[in-house]
Amino acid sequence: MNKRLVSFGIKAALLLLLVVISISLVSCAVLQKVGLSSKPSKQATATIGSASGSNVTGIAVFTQNGDTITLVVEVENASPGVHAVHIHENGDCSAPDGTSAGGHWNPTNVAHGAWGEGEFHLGDIGNMTVSENGTGRIALTTDLWEIGTGSNVDIVGRGIIVHADPDDFTSQPTGAAGARIGCGAIELAK
Ligand SMILES: [Cu+2]
Ligand SMILES: [Zn+2]
Predict the structure, then answer these.
(1) For residues 112 and 102, what is the distance between their CA atoms, to the nearest angstrom?
(2) How far, in Å, from the CA of 154 to the mean position of ligand 2?
(3) CA of 104 to the centre of ligand 1 (A)
(4) Does 182 lie in the same domain as 148?
(5) What is the pLDDT of residues 158-188, one digit of tens each?
(6) Of 24, 41, 62, 86, which residue has the fewest beta carbons closer than 10 angstroms?
(7) Cα of 114 from ligand 2 centre, angstroms
(8) DSSP secondary structure string, 116-141?
(9) Within this chain, do residues 34 and 67 fall inside the same structural domain, yes or no?
(10) 110-143: b or e for each residue (b if 16 or more CB lie within 10 Å)?
(11) How many domains does one find in the chain?
(12) 43 Cα to the center of ligand 1, angstroms
């Protein structure tokens, strides 16, 4: 075979290899940015259904990044205004009024309160504002929870509760947040 032809062939092959490597590197980075990486971070989710005769639906997503977990709760068809959101002990929404979810999740055995201020339950997420169109969102990032470890601070198997009223952050042990209008069981994402 012609020497020049062979040399051209090798150069062309190397160039093609370089292009393929670049494309795969870029697409990996893009996929990671949009959260579609083949190796997703640990996640847990809860599908929120209505309770106590409400029409509330929603979703809660817990995503781990290193030592921190970010929770995003989003609801629809809720009454406009301020609604308390908590993690309760049981991932059990079988009772029509949500009472099967038990009390506030409180693995550290402290008083109810406002997140990040003095004593507070590990389930004291806070108050979510629902707008006129019935949608609301609350987010929280913390290193106090774990996902799927089976430890006493593992959020899997617990319940998310959306209340009719705001949390006053002082009344014990519930924050006087009223009826339970939304409930979801927290499960490890597959
Ligand atoms: Cu609650
Ligand atoms: Zn509490």
Answers:
(1) 15
(2) 16
(3) 6
(4) yes
(5) 999 999 999 999 999 999 999 999 999 999 9
(6) 24
(7) 8
(8) TSSS--TTEEEEEEE-TTS-EEEEEE
(9) no
(10) eebbbbeeeebbbbbbbbbebeeeeebebebeee
(11) 2
(12) 22
Question: For residue 127, how far is its CA from the centre of ligand 2 (angstroms)?
Answer: 12
31 in the same domain as 124: no
CA of 76 to the centre of ligand 2 (A): 23
| For the CA of 112, the nearest ligand | 2
In angstroms, the CA 183 to CA 178 distance is 14
Output 4 or 107, whichever has higher pLDDT: 107
Domain residues for the domain of 149 are 43-188
Report which bound ligand comes closest to the CA of 108: 2
153, 109: one domain: yes
pTM: 0.79
| Residue 27 and residue 51 in one domain | no
Question: Is the same domain home to 55 and 120?
Answer: yes
72, 146: one domain: yes
**What does the longest C-alpha to C-alpha distance in the chain come to?**
88
**Centroid of ligand 2 to alpha carbon of 85 (angstroms):** 10
CA of 162 to the centre of ligand 2 (A): 13
